[in-house]
Amino acid sequence: EDQNLAEHTFKVLTIEPLAFKTTPDVIQMEWNPSNPKTIVEAPSVNREPGMTKYIWLQNGRVIGEGIRQEVPLSEGENRFTIQVTDLSVTQSKMVEAELIIITE
Fold first, then answer.
1. Backbone φ and ψ of 67, nearest 5°
2. Strands (E), 1-104
3. Helices and strands (H, E) in the chain, number of each type
4. N- to C-terminal Cα distance for the chain?
5. Pairing state of beta strands 27-29 and 95-103?
6. pLDDT at 1
7. Burial 18-41 (b: 16+ CB within 10 A, else e)
8. pLDDT tens digits for range 77-92
9. Taking residues 29-35, what's their average pLDDT?
10. Global pTM?
11. Is 6 within 8 Å of 79 (Cβ atoms)?
12. What angle do CA 7, 90, 54 make, to 5 degrees?
């Protein structure tokens, strides 16, 4: 006959996976060759701002960090990748979103 030697109760804290709350819309802007930059904000995620790290990339190259970023623009379509990592969860999976700015 099987017998339980001991019975234990444990609390397990679970956190929902890191995710963007919204998908970025395509941004349309007027092309201004004398000021080919703009400041944009990343879409929010389901974490407090201090718990995350935002990295901005253009063509696979890191161009900055933070929720807001001044990005360089060229005439036409400009694509940026935003990578977000949860700093409070060990081995958290990074999430990625693409931001597109079209200048005409």
1. -70, -30
2. 27-29, 37-41, 52-58, 61-65, 68-72, 76-86, 95-103
3. 0, 7
4. 79
5. parallel
6. 66
7. bebeeebeeeeeeeeeeeeebebe
8. 999 999 999 999 888 8
9. 94
10. 0.85
11. no
12. 150
Would residue 51 count as lying in a domain?
yes
Report whether pLDDT(34) > 90: yes
Contact status, residue 54 vs residue 72, Cβ threshold 8 Å = no
CB-CB contact of 45 with 18 (8 Å): yes
Instruction: Return the H-helix or E-strand segment holding 14.
Output: none
Residue 70 lies in a domain: yes
What was the pLDDT predicted at 6? 85
- Pairing mode, strands 37-41 and 68-72: antiparallel
Q: Is residue 12 part of a domain?
A: no
Q: How far apart are CA 89 and CA 80, in angstroms?
A: 25
Residue 1 lies in a domain: no
> pLDDT-derived band of residue 42, with 50, 70 and 90 as boundaries?
very high
